[in-house]
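Continuing the batch. This is chain 6 of the set; chains 1 through 5 are on the previous pages. Same settings as before, nothing changed between runs. Recording input and output for traceability.
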Amino acid sequence: MKNSDFNVKYCFLLLPLYVFLNSCNEVKNDDVFHRTDDTGVAIATPFLWKTSLHQKEPMSNSHIKNPIIYNNNIIVPTTNGEENRALSLIDSNDGKILWDWDDFYKDHSEYVDIYFHYQIDNLLTYQWGSRSYCINLENGSTKWRHIRDRSFDVRIDPDDQYYFTCTEVINNNGYAEWIPFKGDIQTGIISEFNIANYTFHCPECKSGTLYIIKVPDEENLLLITYFENLPEWISQVFYGLYNFSEEIWLWDKVLVREPQNPNFIYHAPIIVNNKIYTAIVNSLVCHDLESGKLLWRRDFNGDFMFTGIIVEEGKVIANCEDTYAYALNAEYGTTHWSVKTAGTSSRMSYLNGVVYMVGGSGGGRLFAIEAATGKILWKIDAGLLGEGEGARFRTNAVYVLPAKDDQPAKVIALSDLYAYCFEAIK
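Output for chain 6:
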Protein backbone atom coordinates (compact mmCIF):
# COMPACT_ATOMS: atom_id res chain seq x y z
CA MET A 1 0.00 0.00 0.00
CA LYS A 2 1.30 3.47 -0.85
CA ASN A 3 1.78 5.96 1.94
CA SER A 4 -0.70 8.30 0.30
CA ASP A 5 -3.35 5.55 0.21
CA PHE A 6 -2.70 4.75 3.85
CA ASN A 7 -2.98 8.42 4.84
CA VAL A 8 -6.32 8.79 3.04
CA LYS A 9 -7.79 5.69 4.69
CA TYR A 10 -6.34 6.71 8.02
CA CYS A 11 -7.99 10.14 7.76
CA PHE A 12 -11.37 8.61 6.88
CA LEU A 13 -11.11 6.35 9.92
CA LEU A 14 -10.30 9.29 12.18
CA LEU A 15 -12.98 11.60 10.78
CA PRO A 16 -15.94 9.99 12.60
CA LEU A 17 -13.95 10.06 15.84
CA TYR A 18 -13.09 13.74 15.30
CA VAL A 19 -16.73 14.60 14.62
CA PHE A 20 -17.85 12.60 17.66
CA LEU A 21 -15.37 14.27 20.00
CA ASN A 22 -16.26 17.71 18.77
CA SER A 23 -19.98 17.05 19.02
CA CYS A 24 -19.44 15.90 22.60
CA ASN A 25 -17.54 19.11 23.34
CA GLU A 26 -20.32 21.27 21.86
CA VAL A 27 -22.31 21.46 25.06
CA LYS A 28 -25.53 23.45 24.75
CA ASN A 29 -27.08 25.70 27.31
CA ASP A 30 -29.69 23.09 28.19
CA ASP A 31 -26.89 20.74 29.26
CA VAL A 32 -25.43 23.21 31.77
CA PHE A 33 -26.90 23.20 35.27
CA HIS A 34 -26.53 25.59 38.15
CA ARG A 35 -23.83 24.20 40.46
CA THR A 36 -22.29 25.51 43.65
CA ASP A 37 -19.16 24.70 45.63
CA ASP A 38 -19.05 23.67 49.29
CA THR A 39 -19.48 27.29 50.39
CA GLY A 40 -22.55 27.90 48.23
CA VAL A 41 -20.76 30.00 45.58
CA ALA A 42 -21.97 29.36 42.04
CA ILE A 43 -19.32 27.60 39.93
CA ALA A 44 -21.57 26.92 36.91
CA THR A 45 -24.71 28.56 35.64
CA PRO A 46 -26.64 28.27 32.37
CA PHE A 47 -25.64 30.80 29.72
CA LEU A 48 -27.95 32.73 27.43
CA TRP A 49 -25.72 32.04 24.41
CA LYS A 50 -22.16 31.29 23.43
CA THR A 51 -20.33 32.17 20.21
CA SER A 52 -17.09 30.77 18.80
CA LEU A 53 -14.23 33.26 18.57
CA HIS A 54 -12.61 31.36 15.71
CA GLN A 55 -13.79 30.69 12.17
CA LYS A 56 -11.54 27.62 11.84
CA GLU A 57 -9.11 25.98 14.22
CA PRO A 58 -8.35 27.98 17.38
CA MET A 59 -5.43 30.38 17.18
CA SER A 60 -3.78 32.47 19.87
CA ASN A 61 -6.22 35.17 20.87
CA SER A 62 -5.56 38.85 21.08
CA HIS A 63 -6.66 41.05 23.94
CA ILE A 64 -8.93 43.98 24.79
CA LYS A 65 -8.30 45.41 28.25
CA ASN A 66 -11.33 47.66 28.70
CA PRO A 67 -14.85 46.93 27.40
CA ILE A 68 -15.75 48.37 24.00
CA ILE A 69 -19.52 48.61 23.59
CA TYR A 70 -21.50 50.08 20.70
CA ASN A 71 -25.31 50.20 20.53
CA ASN A 72 -25.45 47.67 23.36
CA ASN A 73 -23.31 45.25 21.32
CA ILE A 74 -19.72 44.29 22.10
CA ILE A 75 -16.36 44.37 20.32
CA VAL A 76 -14.26 41.23 20.87
CA PRO A 77 -10.95 39.89 19.48
CA THR A 78 -11.41 36.97 17.07
CA THR A 79 -9.45 35.00 14.45
CA ASN A 80 -10.56 34.52 10.87
CA GLY A 81 -8.75 31.26 10.09
CA GLU A 82 -6.31 32.84 7.65
CA GLU A 83 -3.49 33.47 10.12
CA ASN A 84 -4.90 36.91 10.84
CA ARG A 85 -6.50 38.40 13.90
CA ALA A 86 -9.64 40.47 13.75
CA LEU A 87 -12.08 42.57 15.71
CA SER A 88 -15.73 41.56 15.62
CA LEU A 89 -18.97 43.21 16.68
CA ILE A 90 -21.22 40.68 18.42
CA ASP A 91 -24.94 41.15 18.89
CA SER A 92 -25.48 40.95 22.64
CA ASN A 93 -28.99 39.54 22.22
CA ASP A 94 -28.13 36.36 20.34
CA GLY A 95 -24.33 36.18 19.97
CA LYS A 96 -24.31 36.58 16.18
CA ILE A 97 -21.28 38.28 14.65
CA LEU A 98 -22.43 41.44 12.86
CA TRP A 99 -19.12 42.32 11.18
CA ASP A 100 -15.39 41.56 11.23
CA TRP A 101 -12.56 44.07 10.82
CA ASP A 102 -8.97 43.07 9.99
CA ASP A 103 -7.69 46.03 7.96
CA PHE A 104 -4.25 45.99 9.51
CA TYR A 105 -1.04 46.94 7.82
CA LYS A 106 0.01 43.46 6.74
CA ASP A 107 3.77 43.99 6.64
CA HIS A 108 4.15 42.22 9.95
CA SER A 109 2.26 39.86 12.22
CA GLU A 110 -0.06 41.97 14.33
CA TYR A 111 -2.12 41.08 17.33
CA VAL A 112 -5.12 43.07 18.46
CA ASP A 113 -3.90 44.25 21.84
CA ILE A 114 -6.04 47.22 22.84
CA TYR A 115 -5.07 48.39 26.30
CA PHE A 116 -6.34 51.93 25.78
CA HIS A 117 -8.81 53.19 23.22
CA TYR A 118 -10.83 56.29 22.43
CA GLN A 119 -14.44 55.99 21.37
CA ILE A 120 -16.85 58.76 20.46
CA ASP A 121 -20.21 58.05 18.82
CA ASN A 122 -19.53 55.40 16.13
CA LEU A 123 -15.75 55.92 15.93
CA LEU A 124 -13.06 53.93 17.73
CA THR A 125 -9.33 54.62 17.57
CA TYR A 126 -6.40 52.76 19.07
CA GLN A 127 -2.61 52.72 18.73
CA TRP A 128 -0.18 49.88 17.97
CA GLY A 129 3.41 51.11 17.87
CA SER A 130 3.68 53.44 14.89
CA ARG A 131 0.32 52.30 13.53
CA SER A 132 -2.89 54.20 14.26
CA TYR A 133 -6.34 52.89 13.38
CA CYS A 134 -9.85 54.33 13.43
CA ILE A 135 -12.84 52.04 12.86
CA ASN A 136 -16.43 52.92 12.04
CA LEU A 137 -18.33 50.79 14.54
CA GLU A 138 -21.56 51.08 12.59
CA ASN A 139 -20.36 48.86 9.73
CA GLY A 140 -16.81 47.72 10.56
CA SER A 141 -15.17 49.87 7.87
CA THR A 142 -11.88 51.71 8.26
CA LYS A 143 -12.35 55.44 8.86
CA TRP A 144 -8.61 56.05 8.55
CA ARG A 145 -5.29 54.44 9.31
CA HIS A 146 -1.79 55.91 9.52
CA ILE A 147 1.77 54.72 9.90
CA ARG A 148 3.56 57.39 11.93
CA ASP A 149 7.23 58.25 11.60
CA ARG A 150 7.84 56.93 15.10
CA SER A 151 6.29 54.63 17.66
CA PHE A 152 3.59 56.04 19.94
CA ASP A 153 2.50 54.79 23.31
CA VAL A 154 -0.61 52.63 23.40
CA ARG A 155 -2.15 54.95 26.00
CA ILE A 156 -5.06 56.89 24.53
CA ASP A 157 -6.78 59.54 26.65
CA PRO A 158 -10.16 60.98 25.58
CA ASP A 159 -11.47 64.51 25.27
CA ASP A 160 -14.83 65.53 23.81
CA GLN A 161 -13.48 65.95 20.28
CA TYR A 162 -9.83 64.92 20.48
CA TYR A 163 -7.68 62.20 21.92
CA PHE A 164 -4.19 62.35 23.38
CA THR A 165 -1.24 60.02 22.91
CA CYS A 166 2.47 60.26 23.64
CA THR A 167 5.73 59.56 21.85
CA GLU A 168 9.41 59.84 22.69
CA VAL A 169 11.29 62.85 21.34
CA ILE A 170 14.76 64.26 21.93
CA ASN A 171 14.48 67.59 23.73
CA ASN A 172 16.69 70.64 23.42
CA ASN A 173 19.12 69.24 25.97
CA GLY A 174 19.55 66.11 23.90
CA TYR A 175 17.66 63.84 26.30
CA ALA A 176 14.69 61.56 25.69
CA GLU A 177 11.29 62.81 26.76
CA TRP A 178 7.69 61.56 26.37
CA ILE A 179 5.66 64.33 24.72
CA PRO A 180 1.84 64.32 24.37
CA PHE A 181 0.14 64.87 21.02
CA LYS A 182 -3.47 65.79 20.38
CA GLY A 183 -5.26 63.79 17.68
CA ASP A 184 -8.33 64.59 15.60
CA ILE A 185 -10.72 61.60 15.67
CA GLN A 186 -12.12 62.49 12.25
CA THR A 187 -8.77 62.54 10.42
CA GLY A 188 -6.12 61.06 12.67
CA ILE A 189 -4.01 64.19 12.24
CA ILE A 190 -1.92 64.83 15.37
CA SER A 191 -0.09 67.87 16.74
CA GLU A 192 2.15 68.45 19.74
CA PHE A 193 -0.02 69.54 22.66
CA ASN A 194 1.68 70.43 25.93
CA ILE A 195 4.89 69.88 27.83
CA ALA A 196 4.54 69.09 31.51
CA ASN A 197 6.10 71.49 34.03
CA TYR A 198 9.12 69.47 35.15
CA THR A 199 11.33 70.13 38.13
CA PHE A 200 14.45 69.19 36.10
CA HIS A 201 16.25 67.89 39.15
CA CYS A 202 17.86 65.40 36.78
CA PRO A 203 17.86 66.84 33.22
CA GLU A 204 19.69 63.82 31.84
CA CYS A 205 17.01 61.43 33.14
CA LYS A 206 13.95 60.53 31.10
CA SER A 207 10.70 62.37 31.82
CA GLY A 208 7.30 62.57 30.19
CA THR A 209 3.52 62.62 30.28
CA LEU A 210 1.57 59.53 31.35
CA TYR A 211 -2.13 60.49 31.18
CA ILE A 212 -4.25 63.48 30.21
CA ILE A 213 -7.75 63.28 31.70
CA LYS A 214 -10.56 65.73 31.03
CA VAL A 215 -12.15 66.84 34.29
CA PRO A 216 -15.85 65.85 34.32
CA ASP A 217 -18.27 68.75 33.80
CA GLU A 218 -15.38 71.18 33.26
CA GLU A 219 -14.99 72.35 29.69
CA ASN A 220 -11.36 73.52 29.87
CA LEU A 221 -9.68 71.59 32.68
CA LEU A 222 -7.30 68.66 32.24
CA LEU A 223 -5.68 66.53 34.91
CA ILE A 224 -2.17 65.76 33.64
CA THR A 225 -0.13 62.94 35.16
CA TYR A 226 3.58 63.07 34.37
CA PHE A 227 6.84 61.63 35.61
CA GLU A 228 10.52 62.38 36.01
CA ASN A 229 13.18 59.78 36.54
CA LEU A 230 16.01 60.36 38.98
CA PRO A 231 19.41 58.62 39.14
CA GLU A 232 19.46 54.90 39.98
CA TRP A 233 16.04 54.39 38.37
CA ILE A 234 14.20 56.27 41.08
CA SER A 235 11.00 57.75 39.65
CA GLN A 236 8.71 60.52 40.82
CA VAL A 237 5.15 60.87 39.51
CA PHE A 238 3.28 64.20 39.60
CA TYR A 239 -0.23 65.56 39.10
CA GLY A 240 -1.01 68.93 37.59
CA LEU A 241 -4.32 70.65 36.87
CA TYR A 242 -4.16 72.54 33.59
CA ASN A 243 -6.55 75.05 32.00
CA PHE A 244 -5.91 74.50 28.30
CA SER A 245 -8.02 77.39 27.04
CA GLU A 246 -5.96 79.87 29.07
CA GLU A 247 -2.80 77.72 28.88
CA ILE A 248 -2.06 78.03 32.59
CA TRP A 249 -1.43 75.60 35.43
CA LEU A 250 -3.89 75.96 38.31
CA TRP A 251 -1.54 73.80 40.33
CA ASP A 252 1.20 71.29 39.48
CA LYS A 253 4.22 69.36 40.79
CA VAL A 254 2.04 67.47 43.27
CA LEU A 255 3.70 64.15 44.08
CA VAL A 256 1.32 61.21 43.74
CA ARG A 257 3.65 59.25 46.00
CA GLU A 258 7.20 59.85 47.22
CA PRO A 259 9.99 59.00 44.71
CA GLN A 260 11.03 55.35 44.66
CA ASN A 261 11.67 52.37 42.36
CA PRO A 262 9.34 51.19 41.01
CA ASN A 263 6.87 54.08 40.92
CA PHE A 264 4.41 53.86 38.06
CA ILE A 265 0.68 54.29 37.37
CA TYR A 266 -0.54 51.53 35.05
CA HIS A 267 -4.11 52.81 34.69
CA ALA A 268 -5.47 56.30 34.25
CA PRO A 269 -6.61 58.10 37.42
CA ILE A 270 -10.35 58.35 38.11
CA ILE A 271 -12.05 61.63 39.07
CA VAL A 272 -15.23 61.32 41.15
CA ASN A 273 -16.86 64.05 43.29
CA ASN A 274 -13.85 66.38 42.94
CA LYS A 275 -11.44 63.73 44.15
CA ILE A 276 -8.66 61.98 42.22
CA TYR A 277 -8.20 58.25 42.78
CA THR A 278 -5.41 56.11 41.45
CA ALA A 279 -3.40 52.96 42.06
CA ILE A 280 0.33 53.56 42.01
CA VAL A 281 2.25 50.27 42.33
CA ASN A 282 1.11 48.88 45.72
CA SER A 283 -0.71 51.99 46.98
CA LEU A 284 -4.21 53.38 46.57
CA VAL A 285 -4.24 57.17 46.91
CA CYS A 286 -6.79 59.97 46.93
CA HIS A 287 -6.13 63.66 46.22
CA ASP A 288 -8.34 66.73 46.30
CA LEU A 289 -9.00 67.96 42.74
CA GLU A 290 -9.20 71.68 43.57
CA SER A 291 -5.90 71.88 45.46
CA GLY A 292 -4.00 68.67 44.70
CA LYS A 293 -3.74 67.96 48.44
CA LEU A 294 -3.25 64.33 49.46
CA LEU A 295 -6.35 63.19 51.38
CA TRP A 296 -5.44 59.59 52.11
CA ARG A 297 -3.20 56.72 51.07
CA ARG A 298 -3.29 52.97 51.74
CA ASP A 299 -0.43 50.53 51.13
CA PHE A 300 -0.82 46.82 50.35
CA ASN A 301 1.26 43.67 49.97
CA GLY A 302 0.87 43.56 46.18
CA ASP A 303 0.37 45.89 43.24
CA PHE A 304 -2.69 46.76 41.14
CA MET A 305 -1.01 46.54 37.74
CA PHE A 306 -3.62 44.31 36.12
CA THR A 307 -7.01 45.30 37.54
CA GLY A 308 -6.60 48.95 38.41
CA ILE A 309 -9.52 50.43 40.38
CA ILE A 310 -13.18 51.36 40.04
CA VAL A 311 -15.14 53.82 42.18
CA GLU A 312 -18.72 52.75 42.84
CA GLU A 313 -21.25 53.12 45.68
CA GLY A 314 -18.91 55.44 47.57
CA LYS A 315 -16.16 52.83 47.53
CA VAL A 316 -12.80 52.43 45.81
CA ILE A 317 -12.78 48.79 44.72
CA ALA A 318 -9.60 47.09 43.56
CA ASN A 319 -8.20 43.61 43.10
CA CYS A 320 -4.64 43.25 44.33
CA GLU A 321 -1.81 40.93 43.32
CA ASP A 322 -1.88 39.64 46.89
CA THR A 323 -4.99 37.75 45.59
CA TYR A 324 -7.50 39.76 47.61
CA ALA A 325 -10.12 42.25 46.48
CA TYR A 326 -10.60 45.35 48.63
CA ALA A 327 -13.29 47.99 49.02
CA LEU A 328 -12.21 51.24 50.70
CA ASN A 329 -14.36 54.14 51.82
CA ALA A 330 -13.87 56.70 49.04
CA GLU A 331 -13.95 59.60 51.51
CA TYR A 332 -11.53 58.34 54.16
CA GLY A 333 -9.73 55.28 52.77
CA THR A 334 -10.94 52.97 55.54
CA THR A 335 -11.64 49.33 54.69
CA HIS A 336 -15.23 48.27 54.01
CA TRP A 337 -14.33 44.70 53.18
CA SER A 338 -11.67 42.41 51.76
CA VAL A 339 -12.16 38.98 50.22
CA LYS A 340 -9.94 36.23 48.82
CA THR A 341 -10.04 36.20 44.99
CA ALA A 342 -7.14 35.68 42.56
CA GLY A 343 -4.19 37.59 41.15
CA THR A 344 -3.19 38.72 37.64
CA SER A 345 -6.83 39.42 36.94
CA SER A 346 -8.87 41.35 34.39
CA ARG A 347 -10.17 44.88 34.81
CA MET A 348 -13.33 45.05 36.88
CA SER A 349 -16.81 45.89 35.59
CA TYR A 350 -19.74 47.01 37.71
CA LEU A 351 -23.49 46.57 37.19
CA ASN A 352 -26.46 46.76 39.57
CA GLY A 353 -24.49 46.39 42.79
CA VAL A 354 -22.17 43.61 41.56
CA VAL A 355 -18.51 43.71 40.48
CA TYR A 356 -17.45 41.26 37.77
CA MET A 357 -13.92 40.21 36.82
CA VAL A 358 -11.89 37.22 35.66
CA GLY A 359 -9.29 35.93 38.10
CA GLY A 360 -6.15 35.15 36.13
CA SER A 361 -4.65 32.84 38.73
CA GLY A 362 -6.54 29.97 40.26
CA GLY A 363 -8.08 28.61 37.08
CA GLY A 364 -9.37 31.70 35.28
CA ARG A 365 -12.74 31.89 37.01
CA LEU A 366 -15.43 34.49 36.31
CA PHE A 367 -16.04 36.26 39.63
CA ALA A 368 -19.12 38.16 40.73
CA ILE A 369 -18.70 40.07 44.00
CA GLU A 370 -21.41 41.95 45.86
CA ALA A 371 -20.15 45.54 46.07
CA ALA A 372 -21.89 46.32 49.36
CA THR A 373 -20.52 43.37 51.34
CA GLY A 374 -17.72 41.69 49.39
CA LYS A 375 -19.67 38.45 49.27
CA ILE A 376 -18.57 36.25 46.36
CA LEU A 377 -21.61 35.18 44.33
CA TRP A 378 -19.92 33.53 41.31
CA LYS A 379 -16.68 31.74 40.59
CA ILE A 380 -17.80 30.31 37.25
CA ASP A 381 -15.55 27.57 35.86
CA ALA A 382 -15.39 27.48 32.03
CA GLY A 383 -14.58 23.77 32.24
CA LEU A 384 -18.05 23.12 33.64
CA LEU A 385 -19.67 24.82 30.63
CA GLY A 386 -18.61 22.07 28.26
CA GLU A 387 -15.01 22.92 27.36
CA GLY A 388 -13.57 20.33 29.68
CA GLU A 389 -10.81 20.26 32.28
CA GLY A 390 -8.23 23.01 31.94
CA ALA A 391 -10.57 25.48 30.21
CA ARG A 392 -10.50 28.97 31.66
CA PHE A 393 -11.88 32.42 31.13
CA ARG A 394 -9.37 34.90 29.77
CA THR A 395 -8.44 38.17 31.43
CA ASN A 396 -9.96 40.03 28.52
CA ALA A 397 -12.50 42.75 29.30
CA VAL A 398 -15.68 41.59 31.03
CA TYR A 399 -18.68 43.25 29.40
CA VAL A 400 -21.75 44.24 31.41
CA LEU A 401 -24.94 45.45 29.75
CA PRO A 402 -28.01 46.80 31.57
CA ALA A 403 -31.48 45.49 30.83
CA LYS A 404 -32.97 46.99 27.69
CA ASP A 405 -36.41 46.59 26.15
CA ASP A 406 -37.34 42.95 26.74
CA GLN A 407 -33.73 41.82 27.20
CA PRO A 408 -32.30 41.04 30.65
CA ALA A 409 -29.09 42.59 32.01
CA LYS A 410 -26.10 40.61 30.75
CA VAL A 411 -22.52 39.69 31.60
CA ILE A 412 -20.24 38.52 28.77
CA ALA A 413 -16.82 36.95 29.28
CA LEU A 414 -14.40 35.20 26.92
CA SER A 415 -12.68 31.85 27.19
CA ASP A 416 -10.00 30.77 24.73
CA LEU A 417 -12.71 29.34 22.49
CA TYR A 418 -15.99 31.15 23.08
CA ALA A 419 -17.75 34.30 24.17
CA TYR A 420 -20.27 33.37 26.88
CA CYS A 421 -23.28 35.50 27.77
CA PHE A 422 -24.94 35.11 31.19
CA GLU A 423 -27.89 36.85 32.72
CA ALA A 424 -26.54 39.34 35.23
CA ILE A 425 -27.23 38.91 38.91
CA LYS A 426 -30.36 40.77 39.96
